[in-house]
Amino acid sequence: MTLTSKQRAYLKSLASDLEPVFQIGKSSVSPEVTSAISETFNTHELIKVTVLKNCLEDVKEVAITVSERTRSELVQVIGRKIVLYKPFKDDPKIILPKSNKK
Q1: Can you give the pLDDT at residue 28?
Q2: CATH classification code of 5-85
Q3: Where are the domains of the chain?
Q4: What is the C-alpha separation between 41 and 79, in angstroms, rounded?
Q5: 6 vs 26, 39, 93, CA distance in Å?
Q6: Whether the Cβ atoms of residue 80 and residue 67 lie closer than 8 Å to each other
Q7: Tens digits of residue pLDDT in 65-86
């Protein structure tokens, strides 16, 4: 699933009010962090993650790695914050704007 710019903008607007639910520190993207974020997607479709200053990896690289490992969509990387989206399989709560692609 690839997000269109309209869908991405909509998710960014929803994420602006969210508080970060995870912090990634010096251990970077460990299997424990990945599994904890994956479990969070059982109750949340849209989450915000903070990458702490003691994480030695590039924030964008961390964001790409987390989104790949959790099978979620990377919505935004702004500063040291990452926004990820993964819709619920059965009953998505966030209804995205329709794609204009034909």
Answers
A1: 87
A2: 3.30.110.60
A3: 5-85
A4: 23
A5: 34, 27, 18
A6: no
A7: 999 999 999 999 999 999 999 9
